[in-house]
Amino acid sequence: MITILSVELAIATVVTIAEILKNNGLAVEKKITTSTVDMKDESRGRPVQKAKIEILLGKTSNFDELMAAAAEEREAGDVEEQS
């Protein structure tokens, strides 16, 4: 299991990463939670609420196979570059 957590501007990046992992067959979505968190506004010194997302992902059943195949491809590429 992996949990990806983000606040405010990084939310789009976290969602993109989760989608890439899912589309490549590496992860399945288990749970998504959204909330707000209180943070201090550095410029004004007062508390503000910020959006937060937490995405819980699990490995797919073929995760290990896909990672092994990717590692073999990288090793084959390294050997070709050294030749």
From TrEMBL:
According to the UniProt entry, its GO molecular function terms are: nucleic acid binding
- SUPFAM superfamilies membership: AlbA-like
Q: Where is the signal peptide?
A: 1-17
- Say yes or no: keyword Iron present: no
Entry keyword set: Signal
Q: Name it.
A: DNA/RNA-binding protein Alba-like domain-containing protein
Species of provenance: Vitis vinifera
As recorded in Swiss-Prot or TrEMBL, the protein's gene is named VvCHDp000080_4
